[in-house]
Design goal:
Order of helices and strands of chain B: HEEEEEHEEEEEE
Distance between the termini of chain B: 40 Å
Number of strands of chain A: 4
Low-confidence stretches of chain A: none
Order of helices and strands of chain A: HHHHEEHHEE
Strand order of the largest sheet of chain A: 2-1-3-4
Number of helices of chain A: 6
Oligomer: heterodimer
Shape of chain A: elongated
Distance between the termini of chain A: 59 Å
Helix content of chain A: 55-70%
Structural class of chain B: alpha+beta
Strand content of chain A: 5-15%
Radius of gyration of chain A: 19 Å
Largest interface: A-B, 22 and 20 residues
Low-confidence stretches of chain B: 1-5
Number of strands of chain B: 11
Strand order of the largest sheet of chain B: 3-11-10-5-8-7
Chain lengths: 147, 170
């Protein structure tokens, strides 16, 4: 019984904390973000397993975690409304070469991030070549160039 | 719920009102995270000024240091300081309530007791005494086996009980 509760508690906690952190939390994986992710994984693992190192425990735990995931995705299909609460919505942050300052500040994205994405994905040089930049739910920035 | 399409031709679901609410909730969330960190520093989740506690038997035979907040399956200790006047005989006899012992696993007692005796609703730990009439310290190293509030008491045989309450986080 305990393993199921552990799995649910950790899943819900991680879901909430990453939604609170915002879209950008660990989106652009730098070396440091990667190390941070490993440390989080390590800290989580202790809480998930406790002192029971049996295979049964591990198998039940994996089943619980994947099970919650499936249930949530089924819920998302059924009730379109809850998707935004679980994953957020995309947000336009540049429109016709004009950065939308308030949205960028609140989402913790700056112009350099947008320009970097423009260079990497589209080979663009300047802000005025960008038609739209969208902060996606995944935390990445997608760029649509002007024709 | 107003869905703002601000003249752009992108086929995407955007909701700036929802986004604004998200930002507010996120900032509240950050405040909560800050509070959790400060509370953890203060010891609300164990080991810190808020958690360190001491109590004494009303007749002054015994003083007890313990943690108010413990963690499930984590080691912690109870430190008993026996006052000189209570340590008269050849052996020191400490009683610990079984309701407490049922909720923890005693990992180690230092110094090691010579023997333990079960009696009624307590267990007596008997320690040899090197110098009768001097203060002595006994430490119980335990692991919490139960989540939630637990309570217990300790006493020197013949003296009054020092009661304590703890809360064990999962």
């Amino acid at each position: 019984m305990e393993v199921v509760l552990r799995g649910i508690a950790i899943y819900v906690f991680l879901l909430i904390i990453f939604r609170i952190t915002g879209k950008r939390s660990l989106a652009e994986i730098t070396t440091f973000d990667f190390v941070l992710l490993l440390i989080i994984a390590e800290a989580t693992q202790q809480g998930l397993l406790g002192e029971d190192f049996s295979i049964t425990h591990a198998l039940v735990l994996i089943t619980v975690l994947i099970g919650i995931d499936i249930m949530l995705s089924l819920g998302k299909q059924r009730w379109r409304g809850i998707e935004r609460y679980l994953e957020g919505l995309p947000l336009v942050i540049v429109e016709n070469g004009r950065p939308l300052e308030e949205r960028m500040n609140k989402s913790r994205v700056d112009e350099d991030d947008i320009l970097a994405a423009a260079r990497q994905t589209q080979g663009l040089e300047r802000m005025d070549q960008i038609k739209y930049a969208v902060l996606e739910r995944s935390g990445g920035i997608s760029i649509i160039p002007k024709e | 719920m107003a869905r703002t399409h601000e003249g752009h031709e992108l086929q995407l679901e955007q909701d700036i009102e929802y986004e604004r609410r998200t930002w507010i909730v996120q900032r509240i969330g950050w405040a909560v995270m800050l509070f959790i960190i400060l509370a953890a520093l203060a010891g609300l989740f164990g080991s810190g000024p808020l958690s360190n506690a001491r109590t004494a038997a009303p007749d002054g035979t015994l003083e007890l240091e313990y943690q108010r907040f413990g963690h499930y399956k984590s080691p912690e200790s109870l430190r008993l300081k026996v006052r000189p006047n209570a340590n008269g005989g050849k052996e020191l006899r400490i009683r610990v309530g079984t309701d407490y012992l049922n909720n923890v696993q005693v990992e180690q007692v230092s110094p090691q007791p010579e023997r333990t005796e079960a009696a009624g609703d307590w267990i007596t730990y008997v320690f040899p005494v090197a110098k009768p009439g001097e203060a002595a310290t006994v430490t119980f190293h335990v692991k919490n086996d139960k989540v939630g509030p637990i309570s217990g008491w300790v006493s020197v045989e013949g003296g009054q009980r020092a009661a304590f309450k703890q809360f064990v986080y999962p």
